[in-house]
Amino acid sequence: MIVVVGSRHDPVAAALVEAWEGAALCSAEDLTRPGWAWSSTAPASSRWVVDGAVVEDRLVTGVFVRRSRVYADELSSTHPDDRAYLAAESHAFLVFVLATTRATVVSQAADGTLGDEGLGPERWMPAATGLGMQVAPLRLASRRVAARRLTTSVVEVVADQAFGDVPARSAARAVALVEALGLRWAAVVFDGRHRVVAVTGARSPGAEATAALARLLTAPSPLRS
Amino acid sequence: MILVWGPSDDPPLELVLAALRHRPVDVVHVGDGDLATLAYDVRLADRPTGWLQVEGREVALESVTGVYVRPGEEVASPEAAAAAGALLLVASCSAATVVNRPEAGRSNWSKPFQLGLIAAAGFAVPETLVTTDPAAAKAFLAQHQRLVYKSVSGVRSIVSTLDADDATRLDGVSTGPVQLQRWVDGRDVRVHVVGDRWFATEVESDAPDYRYAGLTGRSVRLAACQLPAEIGRRLVALTRHLGLLVSGVDLRRTLDGTWVCFEVNPSPGFSFYEECTGQPIAAAIADLLVGGGVGGGAGPARA
User: Fold this and answer.
1) How far is the C-alpha of B46 from the C-alpha of B167, rounded, in Å?
2) Given CB atoms, is A93 within the 8 Å cutoff of chain B?
3) Which domain holds residue B165?
4) B136 CB contacts (<8 Å, ≥6 apart)?
5) Tens-digit pLDDT profile for chain A (225 aa)?
6) What's the CA gap between B286 and A20, in Å, rounded?
7) CATH (domain of B69)
8) How near does any CA of chain A get to the CA of B122, in Å?
9) Which of A112, B36, B76, B152 could pair covalently with A92 via S-S, beta carbons 3.0-4.6 A apart?
């Protein structure tokens, strides 16, 4: 079973559930439903709640993470006064689950964060420059700075495969960068000078990447052997 | 140049600022109230370059050799949020000594996640269950007879206890994840690690959560104590393993002498302990910021 961790309001998450046979959505609401049990000492007996149903962790082959946070506004069945606290608790719990599930997680929580929250320039820039890649400088200024129009190209990386209309050298470097970041899926954005502009896991995967992700997420996880 | 960022009325920040101002070093302070009007131009390709305008001065980022980061909880405007984002990026990427780099503190956002890192570093940790299943919670209580429950996230909560006859209260876990831990008997010890140094404080209290003993009419007494050097060195290593230079580690020494580790706080409110014990924690942080002082030999700090 593939679990897509995302929002009920995310059309990309819904499309992936539709595209992947046997996949189901684990929503913010599921994080607050009865049935979860996640133990530090008995990981084999851990249980999810997915689309309202209790699912044993051993039945989950892959997890695709489509969110960076659990938002208070998603918890509409919770009293408004409790939503912010419960969202923080659910987020923290989800980090723990994703770090300890025996399934293949795309992409794994890093530094206690989910999704792109842990994928800022402070993380990918040193990794890129460490691989000898050029990066487009980032500028943050308090006064308005004239923005330059960027021509960009995107490489989608799933494990060691790259998809996108870019030179082979850029594709190979994108694969190396994603691997260096410890990710199994990401889109690497280049500018017209082949400098890295951004790395993100929030992009909607294209058709080829979607198919590659399905294969990755249904393969037996090395953690189960 | 040392850059300090955080609210002016924050006691730990006040102590660090005061200690820095007694040293021959240039110090600038960005208060949370300054963020909305902060002028800055930061460029990042590898290390940050550019400038900030602080206290009427233009500070070149290349001249910053130490950064102390302890921002408040909320920013009030988009301008303040943007400035906070720029400062966080500087703190993350600067070649300076940074106490602490923002990303290093994120493990504490999920306590059971961090507990896994602590266990992987070789410390004993309490058995933990996070659940929304009342039956699982009751079985865990039946197994251990006494539990504590506390927040899963970094949101501060009062640690409370559950005994075997409290099982019906666990029906309430069905509305959201609850973290339960086996109760560990013993004496609390809070250790502040600063670079290679450590300051240990023994806590004597009859409250399950000594930080709130006063609120519940319980007693608490803090005293500086000696920590076995091996434990101190392992805490220094754990702190570095988590990417931190300064930490506040919550430990309990059990009756059989085992050291159980509960949490590593990446932004410790050490002023409470400093005021009670006289341990010069702020001074040690100031020394670290001024001298980049790791690698000078690990050991217990002396008041």
Assistant:
1) 55
2) yes
3) 127-182
4) A37, B129
5) 999 999 999 999 999 999 999 999 999 999 999 999 999 887 778 999 999 999 999 999 999 999 999 999 999 888 999 999 999 999 999 999 999 999 999 987 777 889 898 899 999 999 999 999 999 999 999 987 777 777 899 999 999 999 998 889 899 999 999 999 999 999 999 999 999 999 999 999 999 999 999 999 999 876 665
6) 55
7) 3.40.50
8) 15
9) B152
ipTM of the complex: 0.92
Number of domains comprising chain B: 3
Q: For the domain that residue B210 is a member of, what is the CATH number?
A: 3.30.470.20
Phi-psi region of A182 (alpha: psi -120 to 50; beta: other; left: phi over 0): left
Identity of the residue numbered B18: A
Q: How far is A77 from chain B (nearest CA, A)?
A: 10
Does B204 share its domain with B271? yes
Distances (CA, A) of B143 to A163, B146, B172: 51, 9, 19
CB contact under 8 A, A31 and B176: yes
| CATH label of the domain that carries residue B158 | 3.30.1490.20
Give yes or no: residues B247 and B276 share one domain: yes
Backbone phi, psi, residue B81, to 5°: -65, -40
Domain boundaries, chain A: 2-114, 120-200
Disruptive mutation site among B106, B132, B178, B262 for chain A (greatest number of A CBs within 10 Å): B132
Find, among A181, A145, A185, the residue nearest to A16 by Cα.
A185
| Domain closes at, from B182, B198, B228 | B182
Q: Give residues with Cβ within 8 angstroms of A139, minimum separation 6.
A: A145, B41, B42, B43, B44
